[in-house]
Amino acid sequence: MNDETRTWADVRRRVTELGARPAGGDVFGAHGHGWELADPLTEAQLTDLETQLGVRLPEQYRSFLREVGAGGAGPAYGVFPVRRVDGRWRWEGDGADLADLTLLSHPFPERGPDPDAVAALLAERPDEEEYEDLDAFDEEYEAWEERWYEGPLFAPERTAGAIPICHLGCAQREWLVVTGVHRGTVWSDPRADDADLEPLRMTFADWYLGWLERAEAAEAA
Fold first, then answer.
1. What is the pLDDT of residues 1-10, one digit of tens each?
2. What pairs with residue 177 in β-bridges?
3. pLDDT, tens digit, for every residue of 202-214?
């Protein structure tokens, strides 16, 4: 038995038991994933997935897909499931399509965009209180918003080498880095609040098992 298999020992059972308990529905996000886990992927399916992506997935996440499930119950509203649809693998969920799978073999950036450039663009955002003509404000804001979403925070290269793995609501998501020096770590994505991605400073196993332990402790309280 390898280290990754030991990491996930009994996890599927623990998740199922939590979902069957009365307080399971009180865990944040439980109504989204319903404590259900997709079937695990086989080694052949994992190989097919990685062949399509052109990368090998981080070992902890890879073993999770093989030993626990291909997605489902997990932090926030659950781990985005990976499925094969029309002969192609893809992740599904609110924002799962933000990943450019053609860029997974490119390293996730070691650093984010220049914060001064981001701040300068934010400083140009029109303020509704400064406009008497709301139609003019709407026009100016739409023009600025187009530049904002084409800016450095949202460029495809910002999330190259990473996949979104869950959402927290309000356009907040978390990503797993697949390629580069940060490989195997989970990052928070608060770009909906005008902030850059930031590391949670934990691996996938820390992220998932920490959630499971907190959920068990809350149910026992």
1. 445 556 999 9
2. 162
3. 999 999 999 999 9
Tokens of 124: 């140009």
Look up tokens 């002969």; give the residue: 87
Calpha distance 13→206 (Å, rounded): 18
Find out whether 62 and 46 touch, Cβ atoms under 8 Å: yes
List the CATH number of the domain containing 214: 3.40.1580.10
Query: Do 82 and 164 fall within a single domain?
Result: yes
Same structural domain, 198 and 164? yes
For the stretch 180-189, contacts whose Cβ atoms lie closer than 8 Å and that sit 24 or more positions apart, written own/partner, are 180/107, 180/108, 180/109, 180/110, 181/107, 181/108, 181/110, 182/108, 182/110, 183/58, 183/108, 184/58, 184/59, 184/60, 184/61, 187/162, 189/164
